[in-house]
Design brief:
The structure holds 2 protein chains of 2 kinds. Chain A is mostly helical. Chain A contains 22 helices and 2 strands. A two-stranded antiparallel sheet of chain A has the order 1-2. In chain A, strand 1 and strand 2 form a beta hairpin. The radius of gyration of chain A is 27 Å and the shape is globular. By secondary structure, chain B is of the alpha+beta class. Helix content of chain B is 31%, strand content 20%. Chain B has 17 helices and 18 strands. In chain B, strand 2 and strand 3 form a beta hairpin. The two termini of chain B are 31 Å apart. The chains are: A mainly alpha, B alpha+beta. Chains A and B meet through helix 3, helix 5, helix 7 and helix 16 of A and strand 8, strand 10, helix 8 and strand 15 of B.
Chain lengths: 514, 589
């Protein structure tokens, strides 16, 4: 396997070398980095032109400059990287510029990618299982709509409705009766379609879910919850019960009494521990607390599963651990929402909380409070994450649907059904894993591409990350900056290609890398 | 009437009492606790030395403007205002030109060190290339070092410096101002020196003895150490001499400034904190104003952005001129229709063709159709040298002969061509930057109008501005070009860069020895009245020679949320920041 990896790396290194040469020469020839200065009649412009020409060796042809740049990159192998300086960024070394930008990109892209994968695969799989149902058609229609939407348009609309309008709603939170009706009907429709079955089951799921959602909205409206949203014990209880139910439904099913018991115990523990954890969160005001609590909850889940699990210890322990781990989310959210009023008082917005630009509020960053800063990140990341997610979500949905449909027609699925396994076991154990093989490849490639692909989203939301770096480099004909961007995305693409190959062999035992 | 007299008497008495006791009225800070304003700018500060070659750009300038005091600033007219609360300066002699700068007593850097003559000496060293290396290159890489202006070591005493110019210099007023702190740069270069007074003394001694070896690390620190894309490690980098000090700088996101507790000179700001956020996209800026993320934003409007701004119900806006202006220049030396060589060296024929062509450029139509929709107050720019509203502009514009080109004159152009005996159609290769929509429209207007008088205007556009690189293309291949010059100050020097024979920004080969001589005279003229006279003379010659026409100032827009008051945009850098101390929360009044 090592030889395989080495061979792949050498081959891609050559590709990178050739590609970098082409990109360098193309960028260098795309214009004059001193154009702005030439258009200035400031007496200092001539001095500046001479200064920058000397700094960037502009008297040499681009081909020669490429090799001196390559020399600097080559020095990375002996630990003395020199990617040149960025003139567009006030002579900042390119390495520093990339270091800063890569952090923000990962922050932005990671959440969007993970959410897109989870939600996209879930929607795709449910549509595959309910093929040719109304739900399937609606989702197919919507995915094609989203797939073809230009992201700058989605982003601007998201800001208008997700931020400006939503914020003014938060300023005076009254939910009109018709929106309660519409939301209830839509949620009921989704639930009845996913659950499927006979007409009676469909009606029951429609009425219970749709009615439940509508009732919840009415309750929130009447209690003026949106004026100062909080989660509290009731919220924690509702959310942990819901996650427990979903995890149980997808892993073992409710008929497994031991798993049901274990999950029940973990949910009760989560609710009970939420009180002591509040002290922990308050006194150890540090992001690592989340990791600590996560470890505790997962550990408790494993322990409960181990003692309650009986014969199916491993499965039950795993299910309980997942429920325990997910139970941290409402606990952390609760901490963040406790600070809602303080947050609203500190931020510059006159109404609401959703920001349209940047990654954080300066007034909040000054406050040394992890949970307040988390809430701030949440309000800033919400819209760009949705914008990025909504586009790739469509793609994942389609891939997951096609892939699962393909697998469901395989012989081994028929065999599994024939030997009397339940539908859940067939889908989750036998079909799901195999359906993930092509998706794993797409995920690996997609992640590499999305690092550099958020150019427009970053610009619209004033996020300063890799995309804006590239944009700036191109606009100011700052070759070093563009090449820095190219190196990072190029190397990431290479790495993820290799990872995809390895993942492929891990998921599918028939494939050997050699 | 009586009451008035009594109060006047009291005022006189009070003033007299104050004068007798020798104290100035106590400074009262008007900073309102816990107030904060966020403003948008398209780029962020990354260098705290705005004078160095690396740090000399607008994004640095606007933030440093709020962090520094200076002897002078531009207001929104635009006109120069002297900041006498900080320090004073006066011309003590015309020959040789001598200027004495004095810093007021109570003025300090934000670390408490008094601002004194050592800091002014550092400014002299950098601005006038006071210290040079073995190759005679300035040790300090100032953005525009003027080794030719005031090379004599100035005399200093505790708070003042006396600069003696080598020659009379018209822009002496704006040539010199305070830069970074002397003790700061010395301590950055020599970390073992920790006493500010000692650092300053050593610096002054080194400069006075021309100790290049000791000054080399100092110059290196001055050139490089102020580069800081995020909050600098050393407080010395971001020392403030003004109303605000640096609170936090987050790379490419925002810079937060907070009121300087030591600041007692100059007008008091109202906001405790000012935050400048980096937002490049203009639609994003407008949406951020609507949402309340930022309170002030500015930029160059497109019709779409203007429409969006007009739709805001929680914001005000002003459209106004920016300092950049559009102009058409003709080429005199490329063998084209405007070159005398084409007519066997007949200057008059070439001039007639030039005048005819300029007469058919539809300046008013371009203004009406492209600029007025974006800035309803826009007017034609009728002067090559001065921006509308600047001192002397009206005198220049009314007498320089630009009136001949105010309206399209097809018949006049035809007559000129006929009298000169030129056979039509005359082909004019016209350059504009390819891809620029506004200029493509301007080209079309010009093409259509010129066709009526017998000019065939050929699209000679390309995107790379190749003709501006005089080393590659010593002679401009295009017969006419349209682009913009940017004014960054009201300096009177600098126009020789594009009007003077053979100068680096003179792309059209324009050469008039009389203009050259006048511009040279202007550079050493100290009497404002004569300065205007010379400018009028220059302009008369330039317009008479049909050098080109100026068309309009670029439209700018400034938008602000209703929660802030007293926003007043200005065309010159630092644009809307110029009166930051007057910004106030709307609910505080």
């Amino acid at each position: 396997m090592l030889t395989f990896v080495a061979r792949r790396l050498v081959a891609t290194l050559l590709v990178l070398l050739v590609a970098s040469f082409i990109v360098y020469v193309l960028t260098a020839n795309s214009g004059d980095p001193l154009r702005e200065l030439r258009g200035s009649r400031d007496p200092s412009a001539q001095d500046q032109i001479a200064y920058l020409s000397g700094l960037l060796n502009l008297d040499q042809p681009p081909v020669l400059r490429y090799f001196s740049w390559l020399g600097g990159v080559g020095a990375c192998f002996i630990g003395q990287c020199d990617l040149g300086i960025s003139v567009a960024r006030g002579e900042q070394p390119v390495i520093e510029a990339i270091g800063g930008a890569l952090g923000s990109t990962l922050q932005l892209v990671l959440a969007a990618t993970i959410l897109a994968i989870v939600i996209g695969v879930a929607i795709g799989m449910t549509t595959a299982l309910r093929q040719y149902s109304g739900y399937d058609y609606v989702v197919t229609f919507l995915t094609f709509v989203f797939y073809s939407l230009p992201i700058f348009w989605v982003a601007v609309l998201l800001k208008e409705f997700g931020a400006i309008q939503f914020n003014s709603f938060l300023g005076n939170p009254v939910i009109p009766w018709w929106s309660i009706l519409v939301i209830g009907i839509v949620m009921g429709f989704i639930a009845s379609s996913v659950v499927g079955g006979e007409l009676r089951t469909r009606v029951i799921s429609f009425v219970s879910v749709g009615g439940g959602v509508a009732a919840l909205l009415i309750l929130l409206d009447v209690t003026r919850w949106f004026e100062s949203p909080s989660i509290g014990y009731v919220g924690i209880a509702l959310m942990s019960v819901a996650t427990g139910a979903v995890v149980l439904f997808t892993s073992t099913g409710f008929h497994n009494r031991r798993a049901l018991l274990a999950v029940g115990i973990v949910v009760v523990l989560t609710i009970a521990l939420s009180w002591p954890f509040q002290f922990l969160f308050y006194y150890v005001n540090n992001p690592w607390t989340v990791v600590l609590v996560l470890a505790i909850m997962v550990g408790l889940g494993l322990l409960v599963g181990f003692f309650v699990g009986g014969d199916g210890k491993a499965v039950v322990a795993r299910t309980a651990a997942i429920v325990g781990g997910l139970g941290v989310i409402p606990l952390v959210l609760d901490q963040m929402f406790i600070r809602w009023d303080e947050y609203v008082a500190r931020i510059p917005l006159s109404n609401g909380v959703i920001a349209t630009i940047g990654a954080s509020t300066p007034a909040i960053r000054r406050v040394d409070d992890t949970w307040l800063n988390m809430l701030d990140s949440l309000t800033h990341m919400l819209l760009p994450t949705i914008a990025l997610m909504i586009i790739s979500l469509a793609a994942y949905t389609r891939y997951a649907r096609a892939s699962l449909l393909d697998v469901m027609n395989q012989d081994y699925v028929r065999t599994a059904r024939a030997k009397g396994l339940g539908e859940r076991t067939v889908v989750m154990r036998h079909a799901f894993r195999n359906a993930m093989i092509p998706i794993a490849t797409i995920i690996a490639l997609d992640f590499g591409a999305v690092i550099g692909g958020a150019v427009i989203t970053e610009r619209v939301f004033a996020w300063q990350a890799m995309g804006s770096l590239f944009n700036e480099g191109l606009h100011r004909i700052d070759v070093n900056l563009v090449m820095g961007f190219f190196l990072v995305t190029g190397i990431l693409a290479v790495i993820f290609n290799v990872i995809a190959d390895l993942l492929y062999s891990a998921l599918d035992p028939r494939i050997r890398v050699s | 009437m009586k009451k008035k007299r009594v109060s006047a008497a009291i005022a006189v008495l009070a003033a007299g009492a104050l004068a007798l006791t020798g104290c100035t009225p106590p400074y009262e800070s008007e900073v309102i606790a816990d107030t904060e304003i966020t403003v948008a700018w398209n780029d962020l500060i990354d260098n705290f030395n705005g004078s160095s070659a690396a740090g000399n750009n607008t994004a640095n300038a606007v933030v440093l403007y709020m962090m520094n005091s200076s002897f002078l600033y531009y207001n929104s007219e635009p006109a120069l205002v002297r900041n006498t609360d900080f320090g004073t300066f006066e011309k003590t002699s015309d020959d040789p030109l001598t200027v004495k700068y004095t810093i007021n007593d109570n003025v300090t850097w934000s670390d408490g060190t008094p601002i004194d003559s050592a800091d002014l000496l550092l400014a002299w060293t950098t601005i006038f290339a006071g210290v040079t290396d073995a190759d005679d290159a300035p040790l300090f890489t100032h953005a525009n070092p003027r080794g030719d202006l005031a090379s004599a070591l100035p005399e200093i005493d505790d708070k003042s410096i006396t600069i003696v110019y080598d020659k009379a210099y018209v822009d002496w007023e704006i040539q010199f101002d305070l830069g970074v702190a002397a003790h700061g740069v010395v301590e950055l270069a020599y970390p073992e020196i920790t006493d500010p007074e000692e650092a300053k003394a050593m610096f002054v001694e080194a400069v006075q003895n021309d100790d290049v070896d000791w000054l080399t690390p100092v110059a290196k620190a001055w050139n490089d150490e102020y580069q800081a894309p995020s909050t600098p490690d050393s407080d010395l980098v971001a020392l403030s001499s003004g109303a605000y000090v640096l609170d936090e700088l987050v790379e490419n996101e925002y810079v937060a400034l907070k009121a300087n507790p030591l600041y007692t000179w100059g007008p008091s700001p109202k906001y405790e904190r000012i935050i400048v956020r980096q937002i490049e996209d203009s639609t994003a800026q407008v949406q951020a104003i609507e949402n309340g993320d930022v309170q002030i934003a500015a930029g160059q409007p497109t019709p779409d952005v203007l429409e969006l701004v007009k739709g805001l119900d929680n914001a005000d806006y002003v459209t106004a001129d920016e300092a950049t202006y559009e102009h058409v220049d003709l080429t005199f030396n490329n063998g084209g229709p405007f070159d005398p060589a084409t007519y066997g060296g007949d200057e008059d024929t070439a001039k007639a063709v030039r005048q005819a062509f300029l007469k058919v450029i539809p300046r008013q139509e371009i203004l009406d159709k492209l600029i007025l929709p974006l800035n309803e107050n826009a007017t034609l720019r009728d002067s090559v040298l001065q921006i509308p509203g600047a001192p002397g502009y009206d005198d220049i514009a009314s007498t320089n002969g630009s009136a001949d080109y105010a309206e399209v004159d097809i018949e006049g152009a035809k007559a000129l061509l006929a009298d000169a005996g030129v056979t039509t159609p005359v082909e004019v290769k016209f350059w504009y930057p390819e891809g620029n929509v506004r200029r493509a429209s301007e080209f079309e207007f010009i093409q259509q109008s010129a066709a009526l008088a017998g000019f065939t205007v050929v699209d000679d556009s390309e995107p790379t501005w190749a003709f501006t690189d005089k080393e590659a293309l010593p002679i401009n291949p295009h017969d006419a070009v349209i682009f913009a010059w940017q004014s960054t100050s009201l300096a009177l020097t600098g126009s020789d860069q594009y009007l003077g024979s053979g100068q680096p920004s003179n792309f059209g080969g324009y050469s008039n020895t009389e203009v050259d001589g006048l511009l040279k005279d202007l550079e050493t003229e100290l009497d404002p009245a004569v300065q205007t006279e010379i400018q009028v003379e220059v302009e008369k010659l330039v317009w008479e020679d049909a050098y080109g026409v100026t068309i309009f100032q670029f439209p700018g827009i400034t938008v602000w949320n209703n929660s802030v008051t007293n926003v007043d945009p200005s065309p010159l850098s630092p644009t809307y920041f110029w009166n930051f101390w007057e910004w106030a929360p709307a609910d505080s009044e």
